[in-house]
Amino acid sequence: MSTTFNELPTSLAARVEGEIAILRLARPEKRNALDDATVNGIEVFLEQLPGDVKAVVLHGEGQHFSAGLDLSELTIRNMVEAIAHSRNWHRVFDRLEYGRVPVVAVMHGAVVGGGLELAAACHVRIAERSTYYALPEGTRGIYVGGGGSVRIPRLIGTSRMMDMMLTGRTYGVDEGQALGLSHYVVDEGAGLEKGREIARRIAGNTQLTNYAIMHVLPRIAESGAAAGYMMESLMAAIASGDPDAQSRLKDFLEKRAPKVR
Ligand code: 1HE
Q: How far is the CA of 106 from the centre of ligand 1 (A)?
């Protein structure tokens, strides 16, 4: 099935494959550096996702996932414009994180600065063996602006992020996996296929469960225990009352559903 995504910048390419969509950062000559057109294009892509697409795979063309913010856009501008630039990233990455469908990031090569911020806004992260992570903002005299201060500590803790920014250190793929920057490590070149497999598995869940995992789980994690337990109970009751859930439970009880292996 082919779906045309209108008004995407040349730095993005998208296609639909049944229940999943693939979004490619397609500016390899600039190492998929994220300029305004690309960041805004991600929002256009999300807005144009067909209703029957249930998961997205995001990957990068060339040798790297993303070199982060396009530094050529950091020309002198006033403070208000600079804040607006960062707030624009926040809006778009928020739409991705709290969107309609989960997004699986397939990473390789450099996942640095804003590239790591983008990956951190995705829901599942797969790393090919060449992947490395860095936050060079500290050494470049700038600061993260794409939500990294909030999302990256959730993955690796504030203290490790401090170290990454203060020292400019790089983590390799195995360190990234151990620390929680990735969920899966795969051989070089195998990431996209793994991404498709994971996205199809996600697409097989009920829409309501995926919604709860994306929207309710992070809110519970950020709230106090008492409110969190209550939100969990409400969500559990709502989810189990869903007709799709009821028929899946019936399938299991009548021995038609696969067991957990
Ligand atoms: C770029 C960018 C970029 C490459 N903005 N143009 N990010 C960084 O500080 C990382 C900067 N980039 C690098 O360290 C390296 O480019 C890489 C390690 C990612 C890749 O190295 P390599 O040898 O494969 O490529 P290259 O030769 O360095 O770059 C190829 C071209 O891409 C070259 O342009 P050309 O016209 O000379 O061919 C580079 O200038 C260009 N390029 N990276 C602009 N980032 C919301 S706030 C987020 C804040 C941040 O993200 S700060 C971190 C920025």
A: 19
